[in-house]
Design goal:
By secondary structure, the chain is of the alpha/beta class. Helix content is about 35%, strand content about 15%. It has a domain at about 10-150: Nucleotidyltransferase, domain 5 (2-Layer Sandwich), CATH 3.30.420.10.
Length: about 200
């Protein structure tokens, strides 16, 4: 059963999606849930089906006190690296909140202080704490929707299905068609024995 980290202060959870992808943004969400929030379906987004994530998204948006979702795009990822881009996306998502949090809980083990607000990084936090799980669902659903839109421009990569992750099909399409402006040039897009010219 997911729980709150604190019960008595405004606690924001934040998480990102798309960190391991070859294409598309890294997307983060931050969310402040009401203290009495309960949902039996909510879990780490990776443990939920596509249908359940999309079912939860409007519930979370409607029932939360506030939320923010932010993308950091491939050009910036290539400039500052994926870890820094993930943290930047989380900071940008927190920037969008209408309530200033008193405490921030973050999925994972790396974070940079945000405006001197106390924070706690929690490994597998998205499977332990409600607000991080909720943030993971929002980040994943928003990023998936973005990649499905990009698919209409570049159907040959099948981003509607693979969402930019390094599947065999995606890599074969990169080899055949080359890269787009949505690919992360600093990532190993193909195995070592195959090379691309940018």
């Amino acid at each position: 059963m997911l729980k709150s980290y604190y019960h008595n202060i405004d606690e924001v959870g934040t998480d990102e999606a798309g960190r391991g992808c070859l294409a598309g943004p890294v997307t983060a969400a931050a969310i402040l849930l009401p203290k009495d929030f309960k949902n039996d379906i909510l879990n780490d987004s990776k443990q939920l089906s596509h249908g359940k994530r999309n079912f939860l998204r409007p519930i979370l948006e409607n029932d939360c006190r506030c939320y923010g979702v932010a993308h950091v795009y491939p050009e910036k990822i290539d400039e500052i690296n994926i870890l820094n881009a993930s943290i930047l996306a989380m900071h940008k998502a927190i920037d969008l909140l209408s309530v200033t949090p008193k405490f921030i809980i973050v999925d994972g083990n790396r974070f940079k202080s945000y405006k001197n607000i106390p924070h706690k990084s929690i490994v597998k936090g998205d499977s332990k704490f409600m607000s991080i799980a909720a943030a993971s669902v929002l980040a994943k659903t928003y990023r998936d929707a973005y990649m499905e839109e990009l698919h209409e421009q570049f159907p040959m990569y099948n981003w509607k299905k693979n969402k930019g992750y390094p599947t065999k099909e995606h890599r074969e399409a990169i080899l055949k068609y080359g890269t787009t402006k949505y690919h992360r040039k600093s990532f190993r897009l193909l195995p070592d024995q195959l090379t691309l010219e940018f």
